[in-house]
Predict the structure.
Amino acid sequence: MPRSLFPFCADIAFTPLKHVSLCLLVLLCAACGHVSEDVDEQPLVLKKASFGQLPDWDKDNHQAFLAALEKSCDRIVKKPATASLGADGFAGTYGDWQPVCRLVNDGQVTDAKAFVEMHFTPWKAAAAGAGDTGLFTGYYEPSLRGAHIKTGPYQYPLRALPDDLVMVDLGQFRDDLKGRRIAGRVNGSRLRPYEDRAAITAGGLPAAQDNPIVWVDSPVDAFFLHIQGSGRVLLPDGSDLRVGYAGQNGHPYYAIGRELIARGHLEQDEVSLQTIRAWLEANPDQANDIMFTNRSYVFFRELDTGGPLGGEGVILTPERSLAVDRSKIPYGIPLWVDIKPPTENEAPLRRLMVAQDTGGAIRGAVRGDVFWGYGDRAEYMAGHMKSEGRYWLLLPKAVDPHLASSGDTKIAAR
């Protein structure tokens, strides 16, 4: 995404909603104030459970979940069988997952509920010392208006990834940095910080590196797209262009909801996507000053896909794809979620989902960002979601997390 694809506690969704991530992605930071600063240091604890312990397990549309799982299985079956699925190895090898995935991909699953019960074991997730509940937010695929050239109201660029931006996956250098990334520009023999949001917006990139893909008519919409990581741009001729996350400037994400509260413009209990957007649009003379406090800047690329891509590199499935902390939860793992209602008139989210995205602020052993899809309802649900929840990881019966324990692992299975 990651985030990414690309979440309101994520720095994009969306990563193509990917790794700014979108995801997906906290404008709603005030609601996240209870999250410990060292939450990413708390190991994941897994406790074996049964399907009877999953709230409302019998009530889900299990068959609908297969569409999301199949996308992850397409990736899993192509991996080396002996490679570990995640950094700590607790989820087994790709070879442990491939027999199950081949059944899914071959269209042999006629009863998804019975299939999952036959081939998987649920493991309840918790953060060591912090319990089994955490924060769940939401993200969506936004819609903007734009044009291929700068003209009329279309004055605000969505930029392509500069050639001189170097992104570094720190997990390739140290196992304890799995899922962590930095970015910058090479100057001589050193990696230096890249321009921040204010500098890039003011035209601070070298001319050869400043390459807009499309121009949109609202700086606020462009800013929100940076948070989501992926979206559709409606062009004057009635066609649309899908864009997704290509990279990020390396500066840390900062939630402008927090800044609006600190300056007395909003109260903590009224912060949402909708109230933040309304304030920015009503105060154009102060909007840039607020948005520039988030120094992170996202670059885009055109997507020739049938939907937004998550950090796993697969098309996200509305209400079935979840952005997670990739340093704790590997991509492609099914999860049963039990999340309190996003709004008063909604039921709890109790369903099967798949870990397919991540985001810069999606941190912790129990932390998730629900991808709601496209349209007015998706925007509403994502904008209001800041719910307490929990989840269970579903691992193939051939996988025993106990066997993955080692002296430096962050996974504690019991």
